[in-house]
Amino acid sequence: MRIKADLHAHSCLSPCGDLRMSPLAxxxxxxxxxxxxxxxxxxxxxxxxxxxxxxxERVGVYPVFGVEVTSSEEAHVxxxxxxxxxxxxxxxxVYASLPDVAFDPESYxxxxxxxxxxxxxxxxxxxxxxxxxxxxxxxxAMIHRAGGLYIPAHIDRASFSVWSxxxxxxxxxxxxxxxxGRSDRIAFDGFTAxxxxxxxxxxxxxxxxxxxxxxRAGFEELxxxxxxxxxxxxxxxx
Length: 238
Ligand SMILES: [Zn+2]
Ligand SMILES: [Zn+2]
Hints:
α1 (about 25-30) packs parallel to α2 (about 50-60). This protein has helices at about 25-30, 50-60, 85-95, 105-110, 135-145, 160-165, 220-225, and strands at about 1-5, 35-45, 60-70, 75-80, 110-115, 120-125, 150, 175-180, 195, 210-215, 230-235. The two termini are about 30 Å apart. The chain is an alpha/beta fold. The protein has a single domain, classed as TIM Barrel. The structure holds zinc ion (ZN) (2 copies). One zinc ion (ZN) binds near residues 153 and 154.
C-alpha cells in the first residue's frame, strides 16, 4: 500500500503552536488529511508524547514520536523514535540542556502539557525556543544510540537551519534531510530528502508530506523506505 506520512508537526506545548493543536487535534487532522503516519515533534521537549500516543491509537493513525531540537549551533534537528518512552527520555535530556530562560506566556504564547483527556496538566517554565547546549554531532550520536532517526530540519530555510547557521551541511551520519522547497540552496548529495508540514495549527497538517510503498504503516517500514531512498515528496514550495 501507499503510505503517506507527515513527520514534523507541533502541538500546543510548543510556544508557537496553536492552543487548538492538542495531540488529539493533530491526530484527527492527520486522519482527515488521509495520512497513515503522523509525528509529533515539539521544540526541545516530548512531554505531550504520551497524550499523542493515546490520541493516535484512538483515531487510528500510526504515531512517530519525535522532538525538534535546537542544537548549540541554533540549527533545528528532528529526532524520530519508534516508542514513546524513548522519545520522552530523550526530550527530558534535551530540556535539561536548555538555558534557564524564564518563560513568559504573555510575550511568547503558551507551553501547555495535556493529558489523555486533553486537560492541561502543567506548563513548562523554561522557554522552549532556546538553544540546547548539545551540538548537532552530539545530538546525532544520542539519537542513534537510542535507535532513532537523525534528520536536520528544513535545511533550506532562511532561519534556524544548517544553511542559515553554517552555510553548509556538515558531514555526519544523517538518516535523511528535511527540505521545504524546490530550490537548491544547499547541497545534500547522497542523503534522502524528506519534506513535512511543520504544522503549528490543524489546518496546516499534510501541507507537505512524503509517501512510500510498504506492506503497512510502521517505523521500520519508514526507516527502510528512507534508507533505500524510496520516498516521494509532496507539496514542496516552488
Ligand atoms: Zn524548525
Ligand atoms: Zn518545527
